[in-house]
Amino acid sequence: MPDFAQQLIRWQTVHGRHTLPWQNTRDPYRIWLSEIMLQQTQVGTVIAYYQAFLMRFPDIASLASHSQDDVLAMWSGLGYYSRARNLHAAAQQVMMHHNGRFPEQIDDIVALSGIGRSTAAAIAAFAFGAHAAILDGNVKRVLARHFGISGYPSEKKTETALWLLAESLLPAQRVDTYTQALMDFGATLCTRSKPVCQRCPIQTGCSAFASNRVHLLPMPRPKKTLPQKSVRMLILHRDGKVMLEKRADNGIWGGLWSLPELALQHDIEQHCLATFGLTVTTSGRLPLLRHSFTHFHLHIAPEILHVSADASQTTPAQHNWFTPAAALAAGIPTPVRKLLQQLHATHTDVLCA
């Protein structure tokens, strides 16, 4: 087993990635930010977001002092927005409970919002040289193939076995290099589809390769049919502005600004009058938009509605009127961004008043 780690360390030294923006630093803030952004997101997508985020929030104190709206605006388009909310909350926890210094002990790191066991180990290894094992998706795949472990990796029994194996493989030294090697090897050679086995530095010991089961391991997530949901999105406009509403912190797109939604069977004019105090007339439609989440498909029917009268005295706090530029600069979900961009391109009369 020690050969496994040493072979990967040697491979990483020559063939691994060494110039990513979050590498070659011991700054726990930068390492933490990269680890959170890289969850569920490819490196190529993360780089630009990472650099822009650091320009706006260069350290933990800066991140903690800004509003959640500011943080979500910089995260807009990256998806999985609970990551941004947790990042912001954790920064405030660091300021409050650790005097602004990112904690070094893994138990203290795990106690921060949005940081699990594997992410905490990666941060501790890269920032503080801790002797701790990681087990992200790439590592699960590498270990399952190399050691011939069957079972869906996120199933508790299989995951427990993988954790024990990951801890047993840790080298006595250069854990940070080994950790990066596992990440890079899984991301560039031992990939989910089309793994490059002919260039694998640990091919001779790979159980999956020897038994011609590389394409079968790890066992995929059990398939299930995703439910379909449909909703109207209301593009309420007046005086060159559109109405957005602030979503609750929990649930889909938590904390983001979004277009008001309405079930397909409900009457639009009655809803707008009862909910917003607005009299509206339909002024157009945008094409149906399909957006997929991990657990359902959402079909969006966008309705363009001109506000002809406003019976309300004040706009509720969770609603606000935005110019196109302000809306696109806010923290908004990707499909809402697409709709506003399409509205701007195809219905210039709506937003030029």
Question: What attributes characterize this protein structure?
Answer:
44% helix; alpha+beta; 353 residues
Q: pLDDT average, as an integer?
A: 94
- In percent, how much strand structure appears in the residues? 5-15%
Helix percentage = 40-55%
**What structural category arises from helix and sheet content?**
alpha+beta
User: What's the end-to-end separation, in Å?
Assistant: 69 Å
Q: H/E series, N to C?
A: HHHHHHHHHHHHEEEEHEEEEHH
Task: Please tally the helical runs, counting DSSP H or I stretches of 4 or more residues.
Answer: 15
What is the overall silhouette?
A: elongated
Main sheet: strands, sense, barrel: 8 strands, mixed
Low-confidence stretches are: none
Rounded Rg: 24 Å
Number of strands: 8
